[in-house]
Amino acid sequence: MRIVLLGPPGAGKGTQGVLLGKSYGIPQISTGDMLRKAVTDETPLGMQVKEIIRDGKLVPDDLIISLIEERISGDDCRKGFILDGFPRTIEQGEALEKVLPGSVDVTIYLNVPREEVVERLAGRLTCRKCGAVYRKRDISVCPVCGGDLYQREDDQKSTIEHRIKVYEENTAPLVEFYRSKGKLVEVGGMGEPGDIFKALQENISKVGS
Ligand code: AMP
Q1: Does 205 or 112 have the greater pLDDT score?
Q2: Whole-prediction pTM value?
Q3: 19 lines ligand 1 (CB under 6 A)
Q4: What is the reported pLDDT for 100?
Q5: If you take atom 8 of ligand 1, which residue's CA is the nearest one?
Q6: CA nearest ligand 1 atom 15, residue
Q7: What are the φ/ψ torsions at residue 25 (nearest 5 degrees)?
Q8: Distance 14 CA to ligand 1 centre (A)
Q9: What is the structure's pLDDT at 137?
Q10: Does an H or E element contain 184, and which?
Q11: Residue 209 pLDDT greater than 70, yes or no
Q12: Would the pLDDT of 208 be above 90?
């Protein structure tokens, strides 16, 4: 099963991606996590994208396309994969079709209102080690893996508005791109993650089989 998760930043793509990955036994691939790791590890790619990520801009298509091409050619992706954060532009969507024609079985669009997204992003902490996200409260260590929790630099209020604008201009058109292929499932992203996951599973079989 090859699944694409679409939706604004803060819609819950990471959380649902992890649940789906466990349920289907396939890897959840977050381009954001991959890029942040490259920044932490100070690789040449990390140096190149550090400021782009900090400013909430998009990494150039050619860079991210070759990163994802390499990742999905890995042995662990033979049974499928879940893409979280890719594609983010029509060009990236078309590149994915070229690499693996008809490759996407289902695209899940997590629909969350703009005001909720702003509140979620400004009020969340991310685990440095496993990328899990939590609402800000009195914890500093990830309950899942023990990693440090921190506020992402691009989750500062000043950058959030810009990221949403970038999403609306560049990524939102992918909703119609996949809808027109008959591969889109739209799920409301408000509420408890477990309930959203159930709704998602109920819907996914409609287009995924
Ligand atoms: P995310 O964790 O998905 O919110 O991604 C964090 C940041 O990584 C984004 O704001 C972009 O700067 C960069 N990024 C992640 N995925 C992509 C992509 N597919 N295309 C371009 N930039 C990306």
Answers
A1: 112
A2: 0.93
A3: no
A4: 82
A5: 32
A6: 32
A7: 65, 40
A8: 12
A9: 80
A10: strand 184-188
A11: no
A12: no
User: Contact, 17 vs 175, CB < 8 A?
Assistant: no
pLDDT at 29 over 60: yes
DSSP 8-state class, residue 14: H
Q: Name residue, tokens 């990471």.
A: 14
Q: Closest ligand 1 atom, CA of 60?
A: 21
Fold category of 2-112+160-208 in CATH: Rossmann fold (3.40.50)
| Average pLDDT for 169-198 | 95
Tell me the percentage of the chain whose pLDDT exceeds 70.
99
**Phi, psi angle pair for 28, to nearest 5°:** -95, 125
Where do the structural domains in the chain lie, given as residue ranges?
2-112+160-208
| Percentage above 90 pLDDT, the chain | 87
Q: Which residue of the set 37, 124, 129, 179 is catalytic?
A: 124
pLDDT, one tens digit per residue, over 58-88 is 999 999 999 999 999 999 999 999 999 999 9
Q: How many angstroms separate the Cα of 80 from the Cα of each of 14, 137, 153, 178, 207?
A: 17, 36, 32, 18, 16
* DSSP calls for 61-102: HHHHHHHHHHHHTSGGGTT-EEEES---SHHHHHHHHHHSTT
CB 142 within 8 A of CB 151: no
Residue 36 CA to ligand 1 center (angstroms) comes to 9
Instruction: Give the C-alpha separation, 73 to 100, whole Å.
Output: 10
52 lines ligand 1 (CB under 6 A): yes
Give residue 82 CA to ligand 1 midpoint distance, Å: 15
